[in-house]
Sequence to fold (274 residues):
Amino acid sequence: MSGADRPTGGDFLELLRRQGHPLAMSATGQRGYEAPAPLPHFPVAPSASGVVEVHGTTVIALKYAGGVLNVGDRRATAANAVMYDRAEKILAVDDSTLLAISGAYAKALEVVRYLRHAFNYYRRTQLQEMSLEGKLSEVSRVIAQNIASAMSGVGAFIPVLSVYDRDRGEGRIFFFDGLGARFESAEWGAAGSGSERIRGAFDYVLKTKGPFGQRSLDEVLGEALVLLDIAAEMDAATGGYEKVLPSARTVSAEGVETLPEERLRAAVERIRRG
Fold:
């Protein structure tokens, strides 16, 4: 460093100015020094909250005389875009348990794979089925373990669990909150953005037509399709039954069964005829 570049009085900021450093190059500030220039901009990696996830909505579970019916639309969205219209949201975990999934689709599928493995591992190692209490605890645990991701804006999902309780001889429906707390519903369960629009409709049907659990499967199927169609009218993320038929599965004493398209089309025709 030459004598002309050597600052007087040991002033570090003056040294930066003489060397042309951007931190010191700006208009003259107080005490005769040049005020620091704005820090240079360095690009940063996008945060987790900037990830656009694929979400699945809407799912409905209704009791009927003999078990529980699960119906889900087939639409999967990412922000305001429809990503897929053949998504399967009603998934069998074992021979007597259905999980209807809403929210982050990838995370929900990961959870279903884990639950299938956990239930199967227990059955093979203990030579008996996992109890209903054990199954519910596993679902609550995986939801609770996902809190950090959900709070960061990635991976939030809410399931509805339907099971046939052989000890009580009836179908049962359980739903969960975002922290893993579980609740049992007497007649119905629903999740997804469309479900928020139709919660009052469930109670209206119950008060005007009686409990779902005392009606036939075809009657309840018709109600489920109408409710799903109302949700689709009021929620852009929910698909109805006009373009693509919803998926529908039951869990009963006979196990898990998938309703054929012919039965769904017949139910849709009955709705159209009024």
Q: What stands out?
A: The domain at 58-273 is CATH 3.60.20.10 (Glutamine Phosphoribosylpyrophosphate, subunit 1, domain 1).
